[in-house]
Structures are given as C-alpha cells and as structure tokens.
Predict the 3D structure of the following.
Amino acid sequence: MQKEDCIFCKLANGEIPTTLVYETDKVAAFNDANPKMPIHVLVVPKDHYASLSDDIPAELLGALMKAVPEVAKATGIYESGYRVVINTGDDANQTVKHVHVHVIGGAQMQ
Ligand code: AMP
Ligand code: ZN
C-alpha cells in the first residue's frame, strides 16, 4: 500500500519518473540524490513502511536484502565490496520516513 505524499512511494512505483538500478515486483532501487560515495543506491519496498521498526513482513525484508547483491552487481561493486546501512529513527538521522537500504561503495571506506 502506498502513502500519500511519500516521495519514495512515488519513485518506487513510477509516479515520479526515475531510472531504476534494479526492480522486482516487491522492491525498487534508485540512485541517492545526494551520493556520499561513487556508488550510492537506495533499495526500497514498493509498499510503504515508515522504517525498519514498522513491522515489515519477513518475506519483504528478505526481498529487500536479496536485492542488495543484485544492486551491487548492477552497479559494478559486487567484487570490490560495499556497505549496507538502514538508518532508523531520529537518533540515526532517518530523514525520509519510508524504509530504505543504503548500498554504498566504489571507493575504499574507513
Ligand atoms: P536517511 O538519512 O537514511 O533517511 O537517508 C535519506 C536519503 O534519501 C539521503 O541520502 C538523501 O540524499 C536521499 N534522498 C532524499 N530525497 C531523494 C530523492 N528524491 N531521490 C533520491 N534520493 C533522495
Ligand atoms: Zn512511502
């Protein structure tokens, strides 16, 4: 189910045109608008969940995580390595309230 006025709902479901790095029936991945690394992709469910704490069904969590190495392959960082981050809630500075998995890579990290 989508949520009104949620930008990631609109991006994941094609209501706002964007280039998808990877897509299945349940999840979509697109480039972060403000990349912190050479590769910075966000993987999101097509249905709206506010955060990792939003009682996401296990099957959908699995679909999100299964998408991560596919995104890494599609962006050329599968072999070199990547970092996966899910900011959750205020102390973690979650700014967009639609759960998203950051997939970051393309250069050596600390
Ligand atoms: P977080 O701090 O984990 O909530 O991260 C939100 C991320 O979404 C940030 O890295 C933003 O650069 C990114 N972002 C915000 N709006 C958009 C957008 N319209 N398209 C792509 N990425 C976005
Ligand atoms: Zn949403």
Summary: Residues 7-105 form a domain with the HIT family, subunit A fold (CATH 3.30.428.10). The radius of gyration is 13 Å. The beta strands are 20-23, 27-31, 39-45, 82-85, 101-105. The chain has a mean pLDDT of 97.
